[in-house]
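Recap quiz, item 2
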Amino acid sequence: MSPPLGPALPDLALPPFIPFLNWAWDDLLFLILAGVMLGAAIFVVIGRDIVRSGVAMMLSFAALAGIYVLAGAVIVAAAQVLIYIGAISILILFAIMLTQSKSGPLGLVFHRQAWAGALAAVGIGLLLIISVVNTSWPLAVADRLWSATSEVALLLFDDALYVFALQVVAVLLTAAVVGGVFLAKREDSADPGEPAPATLERVRRPVDATVADQA
Amino acid sequence: MSHSLDAYLVLSALLFAIGTFGFLARRNAIAMLMSIELMLNAVNLAAVAFGAFTPQLQAHAALIALLVMAVAAAEATVGLAIVIAIYRNRRTPLVDEYSSMRE
């Protein structure tokens, strides 16, 4: 059994290893979380109902937050819960519900060229796994360490590089919000004094019609 | 198992491969965006794993993961706005129906 992780774990009345299996408890937890994460991710990718895919994605994010805790990165796990489960998943679920259409041919989930995608995915997965297993990491220590959140904060606000990165990300987020509002803005509700969207609409329709006629 | 760097990295590789397949094979644009989120999560997991096993990288890895999360949030905002804007014109979220630029 490795030395106890983290600050002052309470003295649990559990044996150090799982009876009959001789695994450490955190190994079992790692296996469960990894299985839930991969299973939910596979369901996201192959599920027929996209709303269920979105909910499975939230489950996958949650299991990954647990794996972050097991890896000792508590602040990343907290941010994962707040940003991914709290914000991005809700954003994606809203977009799913805004773009659900009963009329479209939703029966087919994959492209006709999905076999090529499967081939590429298996290839890249095998490549990554083989290179990971065959590489020895000279700087890696034998057991994982717990990162102190205060060190992260000090590095973020002391190191000039990370302060610059923080500012850049702030500008990027602002630009993304403005761009998102601009792109998703409903054009036909603009006031009639604005000619650009109307002409754009008028040009686009005949082009589509001719394309449909040629096809 | 949870005490070895390789386990975390193999898990990250598997998640990345699943995301790759979803991005390449799904027809729905929002499902493709969800697959991109899975791939970004895999990259984050790799960064956190390297930080957890390398004392020199510990705080750096957490910061890189946080920055990746912020960029992922920006990407999701703009990507979903584009999908909604296209949906408003074409009335479908399926990317193989967006063929008017092919001619």
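Residues 192-215 of chain A have pLDDT under 50 and may be disordered.
Chain A touches chain B through 101 residues (CB under 8 Å).
End of item.
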